[in-house]
Known about the structure:
Helices cover 51% and strands 15% of the residues. The chain is of the alpha+beta class.
Amino acid sequence: MSMGSIAETGSPLLKKAFDFALKAHEGKKRMNGDPYIVHPLSVAETVQSWGLDENSVAAALLHDVVEDTSVTIGDIKKTFGDEIAFLVSGLTKLQNLKYPENQDRENFRKFIISFSEDLRVLIIKLADRLHNMQTLQFLPPERQKPFALETAEIYAPLAYRLGMQKLSGELDDLAFPYSHPEEYQWLIGEVEETYEERQEYIKKVLPLVKTALKEHHREPLRIDGRVKRYFSLYKKLLRHNMNLGEIYDLVALRVIVKTIEECYAVLGIIHSMWPPLPGRFKDYIARPKPNGYRSLHTTVFCVDNKILEVQIKTKEMHEENELGIAAHWAYEQIKSSSRIRSGWRGVRDKKELTWVKQLQNWQKKFSSQEEFLSAVKVDFFKDRIFVFTPHNDVIDLPAGSTPVDFAYRIHSQIGNACVGAKVNGKITPLDYELKSGDVVEIITQKGKKPSEGWLRFVKTSEAKKKVKSAISENERKLIGRATPKAVEFKIVNSDRPGFLKDVTEVFANSKINITYLSSETDHRSAFSTVVLRCPVLSEAKVETCIVKLKRIPGSREVSYKFLR
Length: 564
Ligand code: MN
């Protein structure tokens, strides 16, 4: 078994860790038939590519031995020392992280404690998850979805919170086909046909930008085009009522330059080439996003009047955006170890670690685990909530959702028949804003119809759509019932002379005007059909007429309908 890119380091420590792991996992295979060592090796290579230190790479190689083999943390400590043993034990603790099922809350807390003590634990864990997601197709189908959901709900947001944008997006995209199979298929179908056009479009625009920058004596380090990732597109569509026309960054150009001054200069050149869309310019250099993201964003009416997003940033910003804390961490390493790698320069101060410090403070501040966890949840999973059915199934909803959103998520019939809700056992108004951890029970009543007022507070587009369609269907039925304009009677008879006169007398005696009358005889069967219309009548009067019509000699069959 080859050590892959780990071998290039020539590090005796890594060689030793590799041999140790190889031996410990000997004979064990992964689901796809690969020798087990392929997994820790891949995790170690990822950790190494993120620029983490040797101990982290060694811990990555060893991350599954305590969990999966007879090796103990004590053995690791003896062979590799305290630091690596600490990392491995942190990774072992969070082997089977589940969220937010009650019995695993303790585990979740341990997880947060271990990574807030040393972020490398979390970063290695993320590399572990990345490889597991890349090989998810080999897992039994019944385990794929929960695993993908856990990735989407916990690990991708964690990566994002660490500022590891690229990884977060990758995890989301790997999880998407398993976590939301129907939505994924829908989206692939929606955007697929234009995908190649978009690729072609980038190819057309790229040289124009290069030439223009050259004319202005600007030499960017790199210009590349990118097509939006599926899951991030899907999330965006959810915020835009599934309207692809409102998405401006399906196609984007990324210009990487050397200095901040150059970022603004390039922005000026782009705006002189193509008019910017009003209100679409974002200066995340002057005002970075809360996760530390920095860049200039603008959207222009480009060639063929198509919309193009342009992102302009320095190389340093680009690397930080993609690697986040890992980049920062690597820089700290370089300072202390003098292993200078190009590109890791000029990292900001430690502000970006505030989030981790905040976590550590929380741990001290919150006496109860429950409190701590809810604080963590609020911040981690800001824009989504997780609520429970009475059977403890977890339902994932956007923040601000109400019991009505919940009801429609369960089933549209439950939504339509919803008359009330119990949250945590208490009767609660239907516009109540649900919170993570709430147990929601929907009270339904047969034949109940949704109320138009719900549209004021429902959060999910799904619920909105279903309420609207139920209301319009209802209205159609009501309108239909309220305004019949006439009644039509059809009397099949044996075509005897005087039958028509007897029929008209029934109506004349009841003082009902006849507005239309026809009689047709089918000569082969010798039956005749009389069709007669009159202004709308009450159901009772119609009944009376029918009884009388049936009594006419020769009458065979009488039916009626309301005409609208
Ligand atoms: Mn693993």
